[in-house]
């Protein structure tokens, strides 16, 4: 039986945005902690080697409150140029977009709860693994 999985909000973190993420393309992307002279900020992740905090829920401009889901089920913008299956580990690529990974020690944001094979960018629900998770080696 097919299921339509939506967001299941968990814990959210709110910190100032370090950049202009007001464009629609930035919502539901992977973010990490940054910093400025005032303290911690939120910035987009751009590589599997980053330590992720969560998934950006809103579209803040520089200095505005960035709402980040750090636990729960969140929508995530993904690049499905490599097919994504349910349960695949998801890491970040350019612009905080999620992408499937099987590489040992890649940081991951979570696990796909919906398959995507459209060979383009789209939105899927992801079970957030929590900050600083990493993928096991492919078997």
Description of the molecule:
- This protein is mainly β.
- The strands form two sheets. A six-stranded antiparallel beta sheet has the order 1-7-11-10-8-9, with no helix packed on it. Strands 2-6-5-3-4 form a five-stranded antiparallel beta sheet, with no helix packed on it.
- 37% of the residues are buried.
- Strand 3 and strand 4 (39-44) form a beta hairpin.
- Helices cover 0% and strands 47% of the residues.
- The mean pLDDT is 89.
- It folds into two domains: 8-69, Beta Barrel (Beta-clip), CATH 2.40.340; 72-129, Beta-clip (Beta Barrel), CATH 2.40.340.
Keywords, please?
139 residues; mainly beta; Beta-clip; 2 domains; six-stranded antiparallel sheet; five-stranded antiparallel sheet; 0% helix; 47% strand; globular
Structural class: mainly beta
Q: Tell me the domain tally.
A: 2
Corresponding CATH architecture of the largest domain: Beta Barrel
Number of E-type strands:
11
- Major sheet description: 6 strands, antiparallel
> What is the distance, rounded to the nearest whole angstrom, between the alpha carbons of the first and last residues?
28 Å
Count the helices. How many?
0
Radius of gyration: 14 Å
User: Quick one: CATH class of the largest domain?
Assistant: Mainly Beta
Task: Give the low-confidence spans.
Answer: none
Mass-distribution shape = globular
Overall pLDDT, averaged? Answer: 89
**CATH-assigned fold name of the largest domain:** Beta-clip
Write the H/E string, N to C: EEEEEEEEEEE
- Proportion of residues in β-strands: over 45%
Strand order across the largest sheet: 1-7-11-10-8-9
Q: What is the share of helical residues?
A: under 10%
């Amino acid at each position: 039986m097919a299921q339509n999985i939506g967001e299941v909000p968990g814990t959210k973190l709110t910190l100032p945005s370090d950049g202009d993420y007001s464009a629609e393309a930035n919502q539901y992307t992977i973010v990490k902690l940054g910093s400025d002279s005032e303290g911690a900020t939120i910035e987009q992740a751009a590589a599997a080697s980053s330590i992720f905090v969560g998934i950006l829920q809103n579209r803040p401009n520089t200095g505005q409150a960035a709402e980040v889901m750090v636990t729960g089920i969140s929508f995530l913008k993904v690049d499905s140029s490599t097919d994504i299956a349910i349960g695949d580990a998801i890491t970040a690529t350019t612009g905080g977009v999620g992408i499937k990974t099987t590489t040992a020690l890649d940081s991951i944001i979570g696990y796909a709860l919906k398959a995507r094979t459209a060979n383009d960018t789209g939105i899927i629900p992801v079970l957030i693994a929590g900050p600083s998770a990493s993928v096991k080696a492919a078997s």
